[in-house]
Amino acid sequence: MIAKIGRGSNLYGALAYNQQKVDKQKGKILYSNKMIETADAKYSVAQLAQSFAPYLAANRRTEKHTLHISLNPDPKDDVSDEKFRKMAERYMREMGFSEQPYVVFKHTDIERRHIHIVTVCVDEQGKKISDKFEKMRSMKICRDLESDYGLRPATDCKHIENEKIMRPVHYAADDLKNQITAVLRHLPDIYSFQSLGEYNALLSLFKITCDKIEGELQGRMRSGLLYFPLNEIGEKAGRPLKASRLGTKAGLEALNRHFSKSRLEMKDSPVRKQLQSSVSKALLSSHDEQSFKKLLAEIGINAVLRRNVNGRIYGATFVDHHSKSVWNGSRLAKELSANSLNEHWTDGNKKNIKNSALPQTKFSDQQNMDSFTQEQHHFFDFLNGNLEHNERLVMELGTLLPTMQDENFEELQFVRKNRKRTKRRK
User: Fold this and answer.
1) What pLDDT, on a 0 to 100 scale, did the predictor assign at position 155?
2) Which uninterrupted H or E stretch holds 7?
3) How much of the chain exceeds pLDDT 90, in percent?
4) Are 232 and 222 in contact (CB under 8 A)?
5) d(CA 117, CA 4)
6) What residues contact 403, with CB distance under 8 A and at least 6 apart?
7) For residue 322, what pLDDT is reported?
8) What's the superkingdom here (predicted)?
9) Strand ranges in 204-322 using DSSP code E only, listed in sequence order
10) Which of 24, 33, 118, 336 is the most exposed place for a label (fewest CB within 10 A)?
């Protein structure tokens, strides 16, 4: 189990963030300590805040008086509400907050069930409760709770901390925003790509695409991105989401910086010739588009081909999961561009692939010939499976994607929206 402790000065915002989950039936109040009770056991944010008012009024000089704690068991742990209550009560007691008012919320809006605890770190006399060795004490309590309640130890988990197993996004799921945010947050940190087209090719593996939108707002030209989930056949499905709702890395400004950085990294990269050789050999060794994709998938390369309404290929991009880079076909070689590939398969017979450096060997020897210096990222472990073709391969197997950070972004966004509303009223 992982505990995350956040400190701030906005008690109302922390309570409102959790209470809105309850109001939307995506959470509930599990337990409270030294809180003013209501007749129907239902609360508004104002009613919850009343219990903390005397403590804040007595506060002497502690600026970050609000504690927002989350306790996150492993997704595979089956934790009942009663267990969550007991763990929350024990955690707060051993952290030194047994005499403080606090409220425990359980969130159910994502697959990973977890609890949030809101309290203040000043006592009734206004003195700050000590936070010495806070992280060390919190970790020890979590290890004890894991042992006593039979939870999976966080230190022994094969997955990285704060991560959960996820699949390519499903457009009909309730937590679509969380699914998309998790993907967008991490791909730019791992993969290099130089354009929006190459970015979209990578996103398509997770059943996501984005469109650039431009227009005039208040006399100034503005531009941004809209993200769409894709259905089983690669068509846009479900409602679009603005980049501003999906984290800072999803925006056009951040992506443009990433494009520039990637251009410098990929300009003289030896990966280009190596990938060109691999793709050309697959093209020579295959008899149609599906066998071409399958041969590449076997050595950790995804071929993403985009077609117009008439079925003509207008985009060809190759995602190399070993070098962690994405390449437009025309960047590799003229013979691997969308037009050349379209003619190659449309004419029914193979065109000559101009690459005199290619030895005439079987494609099955390819893996022995290529010397990848890096392993593919664990996000794409699904490439090691033997599936009929690329699309099934991506759809059926999952990956590890963090979600706790995404939830923090959602909370920060909620606070920002409230601040904007306050400013408008003024």
Assistant:
1) 62
2) strand 2-8
3) 53
4) no
5) 10
6) 110, 112, 162, 163, 164, 166, 178, 182
7) 87
8) Bacteria
9) 208-217, 220-229, 241-242, 301-307, 313-320
10) 24
Nearest one of 171, 160, 178 to 110, comparing CA atoms: 178
Cα R_g (the chain), whole angstroms: 26
pLDDT value at residue 102: 96
User: Mean of the pLDDT values across residues 196-207?
Assistant: 93
At 236-266, the pLDDT tens digits run 988 899 998 888 889 999 999 999 999 999 9
CATH 3.30.930.30 placement within the chain? 2-160
- Name the one residue in this structure whose structure tokens are 């400190």: 7
Tell the CATH topology of 2-160.
Answer: BirA Bifunctional Protein; domain 2 (3.30.930)
pLDDT-derived band at 40 (thresholds 50, 70, 90) equals: confident
Q: Which of 19-23, 142-146, 159-163, 420-424 has the lowest mean pLDDT?
A: 159-163
User: Whole-angstrom Cα distance, residue 126 to residue 375?
Assistant: 54
Give 182 or 3, the one with higher predicted confidence.
Answer: 3
The bridge status of strand 301-307 relative to strand 313-320 is antiparallel
At residue 40, the 3 state secondary structure works out as: coil
CA–CA separation, 382 and 399 (whole Å): 7
Enumerate the β-bridge partners of residue 226: 211, 242
Which residues touch 40 (CB under 8 Å, ≥6 apart)?
Answer: none
Residue recorded with tokens 């999976």: 152
DSSP for 69-100 reads EEEE--TT----HHHHHHHHHHHHHHTT-TTS
CB-CB contact of 379 with 153 (8 Å): no
Is 87:95 a contact under the CB 8 Å cutoff?
no
Q: Residue 349 has which token pair?
A: 């017979």
DSSP strand pairing (241-242 vs 220-229): antiparallel
